[in-house]
Each structure stands twice: as C-alpha cells, then as structure tokens.
C-alpha cells in the first residue's frame, strides 16, 4: 500500500478509517471534486470490511437500512466495474427445512404482493432450490430467492476500491493513527490535518476516539467466529445461502408473527445454537471454498479466545445441510463490528464533524449508501471550494 510521510496539510475532506464506510465517504467526496485524505492506522483495510461474507443482503433489509442498501447497490455495481473486482448479481437463496420456516417466507412474499414495492422475493420449490445449491434433498422442503442481492469477495474488494480511489486522486495515509478529531482538524501520529469536513468511520473502535459519544449512544463490540472450508460439493452454490437462523435477524422478517413463532420453536429445540447467537449462512468464493459462520458475542471488549463449540456447530450444521461427506477447514478467524441499540450511528457532534457506523452486521450491504446519503447534505451545506467533477 502507498504510504505517506508526515505532512500537515489542508484539504476539503479527511476520512478516518479505510473500511467500507470510510471508502464510501472518500468516494462521495472525490466524485464531488473535493480534495480527500483517508487516514488509517493499519497498512491496508483489515477490519470488518475484509472479514465478512461479502453478502450484500439488500432485500432482507427494511426501513432506512433498505434505503441505504438500495443506494449502495448502485455504487457497488459502479465500483466493481470501474475498480475491476469480482461482484455478481446473484440474489440470495434461503433454505427452509420445516413448515414454519416456509411460513415466514410465504408471509414475506404475501406482504410484498400487497405492498407497492417491486417484487423482489419469490418462493422456490425444493427442486429449484436444489438446482441452485448443493444441498441434501432430505434437508429442505423449499425456500426463497431474494433477487436484488449481490455477492463480492470481501478479501479483494476493499483493496481494489483503495487503488481505484488513488487513481481518482484520493490520498491514503496508512500506518497513521488518528489520536483526536475536532471540527476542521485531525490530529494524527504523523502530524495535523486541517479539513473542511471530517468523517469518522472507525467502526467498532469509535470508543477509542470518541468515548463519550460511544457511551452515550451505547455502542459496543460484537465479535463473530468465522471459518473457510473446502468440500467435495456436487454443484456450485449459485448465491449466498441463508437459513432459518438468518430469518430471525433481518429487518424484513422481524415483525411477522410467524417469525416470533419460529424463534420460539428454534430456541426451544436448539438452545445450544441459540446460545451461540448463530446466524447459519454460507457464501462460496470464486475458488470454490465456502465461508461459513457465524456466532455473536457482544461486549465492550469481547475476549480474543474463540470457543471450539462454535466451529463444531458450524461443521455439524453444514454436514446436515450440504450434500458433502467431509469438510476440510482452511481458515478460522474472528471478526468484530460495532453494535448499538439501532442499526446505524449517524452523528454530527459538532458542525463539520461527522461520525458514521453501521451498528449491526449489515455495513457491507448499507455502508456505501449510508456514506453517500448522509454526506450529500453535509457537502452541500459546507460550501467547500469545489474543484469540479460530477456527483
Ligand atoms: C464476521 C463478519 C461478517 C459480516 N458479514 C456481513 C455481510 O455478509 N454483509 C454485510 O452487509 N455486513 C457484514 N458484516 C458487517 C460489515 O462487515 C461491517 O458492518 C462493515 O465492514 C463495517 O465497516 P466500517 O468501515 O465501519 O469498519 P471497518 O471495516 O472495521 O473499518 C474501520 C477502520 O478504521 C480504522 N481505525 C479505527 N480507529 C482508527 C484510528 N484511531 N486511527 C486510524 N484508523 C482507525 C481501522 O483500522 C479500520 O481499518 C460482517 C461483519 C463481520 C465482522
């Protein structure tokens, strides 16, 4: 990665953090012709943005999350084309193994048909689901397809976006920690930056830079166990695959009575998996390996130790679902994201100082749109010395 030595400098926009939300803010700025510097203490993006499933789960969101997700979708498609990284318009598959799981999906389809939104979810019978996913016939009754969703490879996308932003004129200062922020001023371990606007996009480490704000809002960390495996699968997995554990998590399904009943049944039947706060889901990377996960532990500072019980559960449940007789583990890792009482942290504690985070596990889906939408007004209000360019 490009590194820059010390320099005090004045620019239109300084972004703290090179995760997907910081990259989204930098992209929003450079497309408006602003001068932009992104500061990150690491040597490249290595936070939540590269540790996730790469699942851009647009159609499972509701409310503001859906608005940000829809806005992100256009930006992801444009960036993939212009920055040249792998992204597919895969949709999302949902596998249902029991009647009450199908009932949640049928309710979602019904709600959509009675609403004004475009149809973006449809039921799949077992044959169609099995043609798109290498699952055991006896493990599924049917399922659904959410159509607008996308999939990328999170290990490559952020790096490609950084290179693209550099080509557009964004300056990155890696291996440079930010120690204090104020309107118009960013103190770093390599000097001070003066800025028209400051965007703080440090993810879960917001409490290290702005502890009072983090405490007031109630943002903590959520630590997740993850795993990458290979398996002799008879067919490829056409799209990210969710299960009934996922239906319990996403805004679109959250308010249904059918989801409440499903949660009660699943928690009663599998308290071990409920205790892991499991979201049993899968994505297949272009090399054929499967990313699987995930478990959730929320705390101000979750411990670094990853209990083997979570990985055992991932492998057991995958063996029940997939048509494969063995899985070989390639990697295990812990990911951490910001967790708060609502889905987003959008604050302007002082004029010109913006703080942005996804405070649940949907930042890849929503982060680019969150940055674009939130900063749209800020850029207009700030009347910065715009050098040209088309938003
Ligand atoms: C295991 C896992 C699975 C997930 N799966 C999905 C998924 O499939 N779909 C989805 O939509 N979302 C998913 N998420 C959530 C998503 O990955 C996050 O919401 C998103 O990546 C957060 O982006 P960010 O830019 O806020 O944070 P990050 O990517 O964590 O970036 C923050 C950056 O700030 C830098 N930083 C922090 N403090 C400082 C400082 N003081 N000075 C300088 N730099 C600093 C860090 O070094 C880091 O690079 C998942 C998350 C995890 C952990």
Automatic annotation (TrEMBL):
Q: What is its EC number?
A: 1.5.99.-
Q: Does the keyword Flavoprotein apply?
A: yes
State a single Pfam family of this protein: DAO
Database matches in Gene3D superfamilies: D-Amino Acid Oxidase, subunit A, domain 2, FAD/NAD(P)-binding domain
Enzyme class, UniProt record, top EC level: oxidoreductase
Q: Where is the FAD dependent oxidoreductase domain?
A: 12-373
Its protein name is FAD dependent oxidoreductase TIGR03364
State the species of origin: Microbacterium murale
